[in-house]
């Protein structure tokens, strides 16, 4: 008949025995340590439970009296500590708080190899956590110690050395120091060692060369034939992890020094290897996705190669076949996003697939519970919607896409909000007159709210989205947007502390007053609040992008009625009371930025249209402040667009006779 | 004091390491949102006919020699409503595209037959006959040459009885934004002429709008 479990099998009982063992010693130590280790190995719940019950300090206490205990007890202590530290940050903290670290380091110089191995393994576990103390490479003795770890022909010691590098090497100076101290050389030698040595070496090698062209030029790259050749060879290794790490190293080299890895053959091979590794259902598959994504992220040529390697089809198959883990889904979305960042052919494949299955998966991912997946889905959709061709076909302005995106504007994460705003910015350009779908679903209200955010990134993205929404919008929607936005809010955005926000706000006003001529009235509401704000900005701003947009506002207003042209004249000419008789227009016309000169000349073209009743008076005023003579100086402007508009403007001013004499 | 304008020179032939690789200069009249209107002559030997046409620029990327927009034909006999198509254009910049089409059933002879219809093409003819214009520097030329190819119907089905099989040879004047074009489709009447001018929606001047894709 089974009896009730005795107290010694419960955690509390084991802790009690551990306490006694720590105090009394003897054979009991070994037994209880073994029992504890067997219970916690691979069992996160048990680990956390024993940590809470205070088991770690007892184990460390036994280890601290190592000189008086047998080697097998030491090995059990180190293994138990390593197990507590493995994969659980609170375990690492408990181990460090209990003072295990120096005792474990001492074990590395023990005469018994098994003790050394156990110590090295435990330290490696600690160094795999972010909680581990930073290793100071700038201390000579530390560097010597690290070299000694890599010099021993012991896989655990090499593994520990690699973990220290991966954990603690963060800055360019540290990378350089490790290179100069011979660590990189040693790691390169280890690339020809056992599988575990190779993988450890490749990973720490990647850490040392990451984003450091100097180290790469000095120690690796194609001119260091042996290293380069070894890395290429390792991309064909039989072990998937080794292949992945070798690809990672080559890609890091290429990312830091773009002139390396130019061979189309090797580039294609890397893409094919990574695509094959994606089939690995574990960590290798996940990492392969992000490695491929980073490989193709900045280069259209690589995106084209990846497209030709059938990447989209492969990813779509995965996405349609199985329910993906968040990490995997995020990686796939990021690859699709990068493929669609430049290439129309990639967008076409997704948008022309039967029943738009992949687009539906991407849209569904907008409502995923994981932040990273939501952001990746937004970026993917944003890049797909860079296609004017499909924007024009109205592929995106549907409730199925717009509604979840508007929902994301409520998200508590700023990164999600910004990603959603970027995507919305593209989608609302919509040329199919379906912008009302966005308006009807409450999108404008949220954009206006976010345009008042304290975070300038959010504010900028929201105003940009409003600007794009206002582009070629019909009069009814335009009125709705303006009512929601109000002249006063728009005025504050024009003088926002961020110049980028100012630029977008001015672009928004340009679009607001473009189209039917009565749209210009918007800048004259509330005593021309908006027009005055734009005028002030033209006199005070210095960033050319802001001035260009501000100038185009004036240009658009000057394309309207006589009184509107006169209002523009008042904004651009100096006030009589002002000692400065120089018009801002002369400054703009003399700008080094051709686009600003173009905008300024267009404004003058509109102001001098000869049919207007006040045209002659305006020409006289423009001449009096030196604008006409400045135009004459620009008759041979290096920018053809400017030169042609100057020709038109001068032609118009001369309709009334030449004032030059 | 009046100054003398330096007239734009005829395009030169580039020499050196990068023949014909200069990018075209932007022209504000060919920017997004700009609209044009005019006619397309679709007369046949049996009947004089012209359709009113409106064009709007929706995208322009000079680096890639790309331009796109919509074209609206207003009085198409077999359609109840105006017919809107989306078109994509190749800008002849000698970097991305030359004067030779090399597709859409257009041989170099057909190309030259059409380009020579534009008087502004005359100074270029001899070089184009040699290499399609690959070695020409068009960066300061006041005319842009393009091919516009309609891609799909925006507001009617593909079964509307109309065809978009052909494409337009287009010459755009950077001076005043006027557009001349000739439709080419081996199965349609030859040299259907397209003539467009900038429009300003009741304004007495030019107005601009823009968007910024992320």
TrEMBL record, chain A:
GO terms for biological process: proteasome-mediated ubiquitin-dependent protein catabolic process. InterPro entries: ARM-like, ARM-type_fold, Armadillo, ARMC8/Vid28. Gene3D superfamilies: Leucine-rich Repeat Variant (1.25.10.10). Its main location: cytoplasm. Keywords: Cytoplasm, Nucleus, Repeat. Transmembrane segments: none annotated. Pfam families: Arm. The keyword Transmembrane does not apply. This is Uncharacterized protein. GO terms for cellular component: cytoplasm; GID complex; nucleus. It is found in: Cytoplasm; Nucleus. PANTHER family: ARMADILLO REPEAT-CONTAINING PROTEIN 8.
Automatic annotation (TrEMBL), chain B:
Residues 1-24 are annotated as: Disordered. GO terms for cellular component: GID complex; vacuole. GO terms for biological process: negative regulation of gluconeogenesis; proteasome-mediated ubiquitin-dependent protein catabolic process; protein catabolic process in the vacuole; protein targeting to vacuole. It comes from the Eukaryota. Transmembrane segments: none annotated. InterPro entries: GID4/10-like. Pfam families: Vac_ImportDeg. Residues 10-24 have a biased composition (Polar residues). Belongs to the GID4/VID24 family. This is Glucose-induced degradation protein 4 homolog. It comes from Mikania micrantha.
């Amino acid at each position: 008949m089974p009896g009730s479990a005795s107290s010694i099998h419960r955690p509390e009982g084991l802790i009690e025995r551990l306490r006694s063992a720590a105090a009394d010693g003897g054979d009991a130590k070994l037994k209880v340590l073994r029992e504890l280790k067997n219970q916690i190995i691979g069992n996160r719940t048990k680990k956390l439970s024993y940590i809470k019950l205070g088991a770690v300090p007892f184990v460390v206490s036994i280890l601290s009296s190592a000189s008086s205990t047998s080697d097998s007890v030491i090995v059990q202590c180190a293994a138990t500590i390593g197990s507590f530290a493995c994969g659980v940050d609170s375990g690492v903290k408990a181990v460090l708080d209990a003072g295990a670290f120096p005792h474990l380091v001492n074990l590395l110089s023990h005469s018994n190899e098994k003790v050394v191995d156990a110590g090295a393994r435990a330290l490696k576990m600690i160094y795999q956590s972010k909680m581990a103390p930073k290793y100071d490479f700038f201390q000579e003795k530390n560097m010597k110690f690290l070299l000694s770890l890599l010099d021993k022909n012991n896989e655990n010691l090499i593994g520990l050395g690699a973990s220290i590098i991966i954990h603690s090497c963060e800055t360019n100076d540290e990378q350089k120091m490790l290179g100069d101290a011979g660590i990189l050389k040693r790691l390169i030698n280890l690339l020809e060692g056992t599988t575990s040595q190779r993988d450890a070496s490749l990973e720490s090698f990647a850490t040392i060369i990451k984003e450091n062209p100097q180290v790469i030029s000095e120690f690796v790259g194609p001119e260091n034939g042996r290293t380069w050749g070894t890395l290429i060879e390792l991309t064909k290794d039989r072990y998937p992890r080794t292949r992945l790490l070798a690809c990672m190293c080559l890609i890091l080299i290429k990312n830091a020094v773009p002139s390396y890895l130019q061979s189309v053959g090797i580039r294609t091979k890397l893409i094919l290897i990574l695509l094959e590794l994606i089939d690995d259902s574990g960590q290798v598959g996940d990492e392969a996705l992000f490695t491929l994504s980073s490989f193709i992220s900045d280069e259209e040529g690589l995106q084209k190669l990846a497209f030709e390697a059938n990447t989209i089809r492969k990813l779509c198959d995965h996405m349609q076949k199985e329910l993906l883990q968040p990490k995997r889904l995020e990686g796939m979305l990021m690859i699709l996003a990068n493929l669609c960042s430049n290439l129309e052919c990639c967008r076409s494949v997704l948008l022309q697939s039967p029943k738009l299955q992949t687009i539906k998966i991407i849209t569904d991912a907008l409502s995923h519970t994981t932040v990273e997946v939501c952001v990746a889905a937004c970026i993917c959709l944003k890049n797909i919607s860079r296609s004017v061709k499909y924007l024009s076909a109205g592929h995106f302005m549907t409730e199925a896409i717009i509604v979840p995106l508007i929902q994301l504007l409520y998200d508590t994460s700023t990164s999600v909000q910004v990603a959603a705003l970027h995507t919305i910015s593209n989608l609302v350009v919509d040329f199919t007159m379906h912008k009302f779908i966005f308006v009807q679903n409450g999108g404008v209200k949220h954009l206006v709210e976010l345009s008042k955010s304290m975070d300038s990134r959010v504010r900028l993205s929201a105003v940009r989205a409003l600007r794009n929404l206002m582009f070629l919008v019909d009069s009814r929607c335009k009125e709705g947007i303006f009512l929601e936005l109000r002249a006063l809010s728009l005025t504050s955005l024009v003088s926002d502390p961020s110049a980028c926000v100012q630029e977008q706000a001015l672009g928004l006003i340009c679009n607001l007053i473009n189209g039917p001529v009565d749209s210009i009235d918007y800048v004259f509401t509330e005593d021309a609040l908006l027009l005055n704000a734009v005028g002030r900005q033209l006199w005070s701003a210095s960033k050319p992008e802001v001035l260009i947009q501000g100038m185009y506002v004036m240009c658009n207003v000057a394309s309207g009625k006589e009184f509107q042209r006169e209002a523009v004249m008042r904004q651009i000419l100096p006030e009589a009371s002002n000692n400065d008789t120089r018009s801002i227009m002369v400054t703009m016309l003399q700008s080094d930025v051709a686009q600003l000169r173009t905008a300024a000349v267009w404004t003058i073209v509109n102001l001098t249209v000869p049919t207007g009743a006040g045209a002659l008076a305006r020409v006289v005023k423009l001449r009096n402040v030196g604008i006409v003579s400045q135009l004459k100086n620009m008759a041979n402007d290096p920018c053809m667009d400017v030169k042609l508009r100057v020709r038109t403007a001068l032609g118009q001013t001369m309709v009334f006779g030449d004032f030059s004499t | 004091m009046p100054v003398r304008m330096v007239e734009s020179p005829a395009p030169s032939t580039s020499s050196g390491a990068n023949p014909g690789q200069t990018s075209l200069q932007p022209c504000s009249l060919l920017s997004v949102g700009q609209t044009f209107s005019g006619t397309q002559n679709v007369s046949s030997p049996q009947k004089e006919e012209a359709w009113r046409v409106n064009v709007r620029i929706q995208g322009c990327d000079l680096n890639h020699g790309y331009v796109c927009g919509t074209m609206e034909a207003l009085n198409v006999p077999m359609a109840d409503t105006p017919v809107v198509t989306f078109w994509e254009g190749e800008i002849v910049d000698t970097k991305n595209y030359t004067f030779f089409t090399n597709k859409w059933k257009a041989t170099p002879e057909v190309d030259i037959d059409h380009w020579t219809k534009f008087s502004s093409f005359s100074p270029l003819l001899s070089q184009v006959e040699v290499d399609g214009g690959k070695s020409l520097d068009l960066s300061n030329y006041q005319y842009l040459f393009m091919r516009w190819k309609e891609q799909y119907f925006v507001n009617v089905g593909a079964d509307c009885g109309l065809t978009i099989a052909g494409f337009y040879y287009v010459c755009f004047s950077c001076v005043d934004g006027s557009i001349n074009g000739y439709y080419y489709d081996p199965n349609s009447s030859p040299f259907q002429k397209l003539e467009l001018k900038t429009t300003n929606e009741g304004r007495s001047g030019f107005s601009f709008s823009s968007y910024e894709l992320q």
